[in-house]
Amino acid sequence: MSFRLPALTALVLGLASPVAAEEVVVFAAASLKTALDGIAADFKEKTGNEVLVSYAGSNQLAKQIIEGAPADIFVSAAVNWMDEVEKAGAIADDSRKDLLGNALVLIAHGKDAVPVTIGADFDLKGLLGEGKLAMGLVDSVPAGQYGKAALEKLGVWSAVEPSVAQADNVRAALALVATGEAPYGIVYATDAAAEDEVTVVGTFPADSYPAIIYPSALLTGAADQADKDFYAALQSDEAKAAFTEQGFVILSDK
After folding, report:
1. CA–CA dist 178, 171 (Å, integer)
2. Structural contact between residues 168 and 60, judged by C-beta atoms closer than 8 angstroms
3. Element (H, E) at 19
4. Per-residue pLDDT reduced to its tens digit, 60-82
5. Which CATH fold would you assign to the domain 20-101+212-250?
């Protein structure tokens, strides 16, 4: 029977070996970075599973998923880009949820900027002077689309359009204002809360732009239990607390 000992030894060693950590790949809107980084780190500490998050504009991420990028979870900053991913058949059945809400604000460089009243025909162009207004790409990045919609509704878009500096995502627009390259910008309230070098000088009326909704979904490529566990973790009480701390509105319970 001695010839069976090596096989038995290998079996025992295999049982004694720790389970290999799994890897979760998340594609997420850039505005989620501050909160989601913390949630991912907490998940790794508790489970040992690695969470790799790719942050960009929701439009870029959606296109990459449709083209076959190996992602397990998608969290978009706009319903329309999640719709495109769903139309492409890339969402796991019954996994889509409206996770979060947000608000749109006008920010200024520095910590002592003077507040302004945002309303119909307000003099945004006069406020800018020769400076630029930082925004996400207005035809594709959700924050840019929401911002353009608000400025059109308020009747000031045509006046400020030549002064708009468009960025690839909302965090890039935030950085333009934080570094002083643009004196003003339009970002989400949560982005403003994540940056010390900007001041919120006004909040856009909620009826001036479409409701900001962050839908989330488990993608069809998600095969590991860790993928499902992290997706569930995004809806946990701990995650909700982290999102709320950054200023997001929780929608997953509604």
Report:
1. 10
2. yes
3. none
4. 999 999 999 999 999 999 999 99
5. D-Maltodextrin-Binding Protein; domain 2 (3.40.190)
pLDDT digits (tens, 9 = 90+) for 131-150: 999 999 999 999 999 999 99
87 burial (CB, 10 Å; 0-12 / 13-18 / 19+) is exposed
Q: Please give the model's pTM, rounded to 2 decimal places.
A: 0.84
Collect all residues with Cβ–Cβ distance below 8 Å to 5 and sequence separation of at least 6: none
120: exposed, middle or buried (Cβ count in 10 Å: 0-12, 13-18, 19+): exposed
* Residues sharing a CB contact under 8 Å with residue 108, sequence separation 6 or more, in sequence order: 114, 177, 183, 184, 198, 199, 201
DSSP per position, 50-62? EEEEEEE-HHHHH
pLDDT digits over 15-33, tens only?
443 456 789 999 999 999 9
What CATH number matches the domain at 104-208, 3.40.1280.10, 3.40.190.10, 3.55.30.10, 3.20.170.30? 3.40.190.10
Establish how many alpha carbons lie within 13 A of residue 80's alpha carbon, considering only the half-sphere containing its beta carbon: 13
List of residues 6+ apart from 93 with CB closer than 8 A: none
CB 146 within 8 A of CB 57: no
State how beta strands 164-167 and 133-136 pair: parallel
Instruction: Establish how many alpha carbons lie within 13 A of residue 210's alpha carbon, considering only the half-sphere containing its beta carbon.
Output: 13
Find out whether 2 and 49 touch, Cβ atoms under 8 Å: no
* CA 155 remoteness from chain centre: 28
Q: What does the buried/exposed string (b/e) look like for 59-68 if buried means 16 or more CB atoms within 10 Å of the residue's CB?
A: bbbbbbbeee
pLDDT < 70 regions, the chain: 1-20, 252-254
